[in-house]
Amino acid sequence: MQNVELYSKNNNCQKSASRKFYNYFGDLLKAEFKNQEISLIDVGSGCGTILSEVTVGESGLKFAKIFGVDKSEKMVNFASETYGSDLMSFRYMDVIDKIPDDLMSEQFDMVTSFYCLHHVRDLKKAFETINGLLAVNGLFGCVFFTWHTFITAWDALTEKYPVMSNWRNRFTPLFAVDNPDEIIKNNLSESGFEIVKFIDDRNEFYNFSVPENMAKTLDAINPFFTSMSEEEQKQFSKDQMSKIFELQKSESLVEPFRVIYFVARKTKTCC
Ligand SMILES: C[S@@+](CC[C@H](N)C(=O)[O-])C[C@H]1O[C@@H](n2cnc3c(N)ncnc32)[C@H](O)[C@@H]1O
């Protein structure tokens, strides 16, 4: 899984996207929930920093209780130790597995999932789980990363780094298609959701300032990075940046990538 130490220090790109989510949809969410204290479950909450700093700290929404769930025990432990409180608790859950009984009986007002579902192969199953967590009329807010040049760069490096040879199997099949927007919309509709607002940003960018920041951000989400020796890690980091710059035909650190943002409403219980 991911490197919790590295990710907890190198998630500014993801943090920027979650801020954009609330810039896009914050007013809509405030109008929906008014002054209600929301029960929230955040799927793929990772180290908990973004949930704590952005969703709780900056969104302007009020919360009654929050669960952060993640399939990485290391992430759950880090988040619990760092951000656990009476309001917010963290626990293990895989979004493609059966929902634990106690969470199933909760029926949450809102589910968020930021920069997580690109790790999931069975998108429909994930949406069905999220449907099962929500009350009817509850809202699902998502930031879904769908493309960046590193994808082609990693493909090109698989020969030199055999440990990465099947790396795509650990990520969404949407990396291989041109129409992730249509696929996401269809899966939402088949899983009992109606789209409230959908933004397909093909010109997303984040200013990494220096190549090292981009490299560390990518290393932190690379599930194979920890299987490499320290020497190999250093070399891979350098090679991936050279390949990205070669593919971009520039050493720009603000090249556009693609991220989909949406809010969808559960209109019916799907399954
Ligand atoms: C890039 S991190 C994003 C974390 C956090 N949402 C954020 O924005 O910082 C993706 C997280 O999704 C989790 N994840 C991946 N697949 C998952 C699954 N099937 N069920 C639950 N969590 C999952 C990973 O363990 C990881 O912590």
Automatic annotation (TrEMBL):
It holds the Pfam family Methyltransf_31. It comes from the Eukaryota. Residues 36-140 form the Methyltransferase domain. PANTHER family: TRANS-ACONITATE 2-METHYLTRANSFERASE, TRANS-ACONITATE 2-METHYLTRANSFERASE-RELATED. This is Methyltransferase domain-containing protein.
